[in-house]
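User: Can you predict the 3D structure of Transmembrane protein 231? Sequence below.
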Amino acid sequence: MVNVYIAHYPIHFKNRNCSAATLLCLVITVLLALLPLILAIATNNFIIREKVAYEQPDVKFTNEFIAEALIGTTVKQYSTVENINKEYSSLIQNPQLTVTPFDRNDDLKAETLTLEFEFFHLSTEQVKGLNLLFYLQYTLGGEINTQFKTLVYKSLTAPLDGGIQYAQMRGDLDLKQKNPVAEGTIKRELYNTTLEDDFNDYGIRGILDLYVSRNQTTEYTAEPIITSMPANAKTTSTKVKMIIDVPLIQPVWHYTSVIQVLKLAWIEFFALFIPIYFILYVWLYGFFVKSNVA
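Assistant: Sure. Here are the predicted structure tokens for Transmembrane protein 231:
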């Protein structure tokens, strides 16, 4: 048998697209491209070093508040968001609201937030229930350097033989984490949506469902004390006082993200390596042909 060589390659190898050399080249090239991705996914969070930091968060009221009141058999809504009030002007009223931050050590971080609401209603029927929801801005500095919006939700129910005249509560605002948060040198904003957009898109129930799926949430641990009205008494306003204690030392789990970023950074530059993979493929093909891989 006589083989005719052109540029050092046997013709019968160049014309066989399904030869062993071609298939072997394809397998090696695909493995070189996919193996790093498979390893990166399989080792996700494997080499992350988790740490815990202790700091006082900076918590501020964002003036985004909405409430539902069950007055007799009618549900009445209240909001401090101007655009919501304009859009639903016939259904929503603006409550009277006072916010008092207390900064004991003058570090520009409030240790206590006191919120006082007064809900006016035209009907003299009793308030049988109240659902309160509002957003807070929660900022963590130091190595974490993260800011996000969190919410406080409380549901109040009147005794069976009366209505809600006044309610007060006091509790801590505790941070809850499903997974550690990444460190960062530049402040990152998470969950930075507005109550207006969330309310229009999901409603109150949908907002709560989305909130519990977050990685970082807060829990307001307070038991309300309700001053009820006699069954035959009538009123045109209901008051609620909420005192939120911000922990002076809040443990926050976090991790150094540099290793994770470096591990996955190659994906962003994958397109740049396509010519290299092609050159590698041609070189391997020539090598296998010279090695008589049929």
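The chain is about 25% helix and 40% strand. Residues 5-47+264-290 form one domain.
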